[in-house]
Amino acid sequence: MSASPYIVGNWKMNGTRAMLAEARAIDRAAARYPGVQVALAPPFTLIQPFAEAAQAIATGGQDCHVAAKGAHTGDISAPMLADCGASFVIVGHSERRKDHGESDALVKAKAEAAIDAGLGVIVCVGETLEERDAGKAEAVVSKQVDKSLPSAEAIAELAPGRISVAYEPVWAIGTGRVAEVEDVVAMHAAIRARITAAYGDKGEGVRILYGGSVNAENAAALLAAEGVGGALVGGASLAAESFVAIIAAAGTESVA
Ligand code: PGA
């Protein structure tokens, strides 16, 4: 696991320009935790103003198209994200897999398009409640990792810290229901095994984040769990107060 924890906020389809003040408050607070790598993925419309103002945290997109440009009405490409200041993109979030029917193959193509554009990538995976109840969670997630991650060739020139996998059980997203720490540890170990199979030694620097109802109260226990390299945070990243509490759970405040 990489040394510094990676805490990423995913604002989903939330936030107008009025929310930029909240983002700036997060940025100012994050500067007090130099040992924590903090990032925020606002909606497309806020990427540029936020990236221009941010000093301590990285700005990213929540999705990108597989093509660099072309006749794809309403879509945004990875080079466009990079052009407006994004340094990473989230791909394969379960809401995109569900709302837009995204397959593992499409997620992989998006991840590779992002790398081509010089972006870091967070690839999301996670099982549904039915799959967990049927005892298939590890098999489902392992297959998603195998088929959604960019190829070893695609990452050959990339610093390993530029790729992360986010394990987000679908039933834990936005529900207030968090996975048990022991289940998170078991799944992160299974994901680590697949990353090693895909990338060999180079996979060591790939962080595995947990996501799904992470909040100020449960963050410390989740972040301390074996194999957890950070968190992907939805609802609790929308307010500086709750998001900064999660950042604080991941690191130590500097006494400047
Ligand atoms: P949540 O969302 O923290 O609101 O559960 C997490 C995510 O979907 O990334």
UniProtKB/TrEMBL annotation:
The active site is at H93, E168. The keyword Cytoplasm applies. Substrate binds at N10, W11, K12, G174, S213, G234, G235. Its main location: cytoplasm. Coiled coil: none annotated. It is found in: Cytoplasm. The keyword Isomerase applies. SUPFAM superfamilies: Triosephosphate isomerase (TIM). Keywords: Cytoplasm, Gluconeogenesis, Glycolysis, Isomerase. Pathway: Carbohydrate metabolism; erythritol degradation; Carbohydrate degradation; glycolysis; D-glyceraldehyde 3-phosphate from glycerone phosphate: step 1/1; Carbohydrate biosynthesis; gluconeogenesis. It holds the Pfam family TIM. It comes from the Bacteria. It is an enzyme of class 5 (isomerase). It catalyses: D-glyceraldehyde 3-phosphate = dihydroxyacetone phosphate; L-erythrulose 1-phosphate = D-erythrulose 4-phosphate. Its EC number is 5.3.1.1. One of its GO terms (molecular function) is triose-phosphate isomerase activity. Belongs to the triosephosphate isomerase family. Involved in the gluconeogenesis. Catalyzes stereospecifically the conversion of dihydroxyacetone phosphate (DHAP) to D-glyceraldehyde-3-phosphate (G3P). Homodimer. PANTHER family: TRIOSEPHOSPHATE ISOMERASE (PTHR21139:SF42). This is Triosephosphate isomerase. It comes from Novosphingobium aquae. The gene is tpiA.
